[in-house]
Structures are given as structure tokens and as C-alpha cells.
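TL;DR need C-alpha cells for one chain.
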Amino acid sequence: MDRAQLPLNALRAFEAAARHLNFTRAGLELHVSQGAVSHQVAELERRLGTRLFHRLPRGLALTDEGHALVPAVAEAFDRVAATLDQYAGGRFREVLKVGVVGTFAAGWLLPRLDAFARAHPAIDLRIATNNNRVDLAGEALDYAIRFGDGAWHGTHAEPLVAAPLAPLCAPVVAARLKSPADLIHERLLRSYRADEWALWFAAAGVPPPVLRGPMFDSSALMAAAATAGQGVALAPPSMFARDLAAERLVQPFALEIDVGRYWLTRLMSRAESDAMRRFRGWLADEIAAGA
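>> reply
TL;DR here they are.
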């Protein structure tokens, strides 16, 4: 079929009718009459040489051919709409989708988002937070910032910032702590990485206690519990600089352990777009400047 002769109005009528399974409701959505939708669908069926709907007394039912056409038409219209959205305000804006582990998002990225927006107004940055479990392909992400050792199958990983862990707690709890051994008598808040407290106690030369404190899938949430005096978190102080400066949290001991860092990752099969390269460069500049 010649692209210049694509029956776009008929395809839109078909897509709306397929969602509603009713010509009248499709017409209301498209601001045309029921008869106009019916006519457009009939014209499309004529051009394709096949029926797309079974006309029933109380509505419509898709034929096998209609079922096959629906996803292609719906995806095409969605892509057109998404592209047109990028021209909002009379300027093209390239969408950049980034998944970010929650602790990094709140502790490092959020305070800098205004600076990024000012530096790159043509990039529509969309952030999706997670608890370090992310599916780049399934979530259609350009990048994911995550914590670990950089070894994720099928991904290119670029190191961003180190994030050594140390005990963090509320001032009232810190006042009770004179040496690492005193932590044995406190409630120790845990992450889903079960060996972290054992590694810290080993570095401190103290036999680790049996851990019975609450377990969290987010260091940000764990630190919030610590701020409320509910226990001692083992978390990266660099991600909670504002809380430490405001003395909502205290780092009672200088000892830190290195169990990973934050990485910028993308699928190896994903070629970098201009927006991706700009975001990566901005991250590198911000980190190098220690901003």
C-alpha cells in the first residue's frame, strides 16, 4: 500500500473501535458520529479485503485478522504521540529514561536535577527509582544507575562514585556508642545484602552478633529508620551528607568498608544516543568537580 494513500482516519477509527468494541463509544472519543466510525472501518475492511470485526447485537468482536492488526496500529499511534510530545513548547526535546537506585537518586542526583535541566534543556529526563533490581530491556531504560561490583550480564558498566559503608544512627543512639563493640547491644538495621554487618565487624576486630533487626530493600528507607532512632543503619555516608550536616544522623565511627560502588550501566546492544552521551558527560563532570 502506498504510504501516501494510508487510510489514517480509518486506522484511527479501527483502533478506537477495537479498544471500546463499540462504534458509538469510539465515535464519542473521536468526536465524530457512530455512523462515521462505522463507515471508516468498513472502508478499511474493503481496502484490506478482509473483515476486522464481527458485528454483534450488543457491540463488536474482533476477528482473527482484527486481533492481528490491533497491536501494530496501537503501537504506531503511540509512537507518533510520544514523538509529538517531544515538541511541546515549540522545541524538540529528546527523551532520556534512567533507572536509579533509590539511595543514589535521593542522596546524589535529586539535589543536582535543576543544574542538569539548566545545562541541557533539550533533554526530557525521566527517572524511575528502584531497589537495585532493574530490567533495562523490559523497562525500556536508556541507562540504569545501580550499586554493586559492575558485573551485570549483557551490560556495559562505567564506574561513577565509591560508596563505602559505615554505621549511621540518630544522635541519641550515638551518645551510647564509645567503641564498635557497643553496637552489639543496639538494634542493627539490615539490608538485603546479608554479609555487610559481618564484614564491618570483621574490619573492626569485633565478633559479629546474631542479627535480628528489621531488613530493608533500600538504604534510604533504612537510614530514615535510623534517623527516627529505630536502630543503627550500615549505609554510605556520602549519600546522606545533608542528614549528617544537619545532625539528623551521626557517623559514630570512622571505619568504613568498601563492598561496591555506583555504576552507570546500559545494555551492550544499546547504542548511545546524543542525550545519553550528554547525560554521561554531565555525570562525569559533576563527580570530577565534587559538586
